[in-house]
Amino acid sequence: MVTVPKPFPTEFRRDVIAVARRKEAPLSQIARDFGVSESCLHRWLKVADVDEGVRPGITQAEAAEIRELKKRNRLLEQENEVLRRAAIYLGQGLNPK
Questions:
Q1: What is the CATH number of the domain that holds 45?
Q2: Of 5-9, 33-37, 63-67, which gets the smallest average pLDDT?
């Protein structure tokens, strides 16, 4: 069974990003000091740059909205399929003459 680590609190990430942006130490040292992987810290910096408009891309808010819309779309498609099948089933008893 694969376990997914718990996400770090937003405030913690914000603090780590602020320290990393000061460039007072190498990113590898900052990551080690805060107990995160260097790749994780790079990702946090990239996401922060996108969210702040420094780098092009989809912000976290936009990504969350897209996920919700996709989930809603799947639900609507399932509901539509149920209604389609119900219409076919109910329509079988009708014999127009």
A1: 1.10.10
A2: 5-9
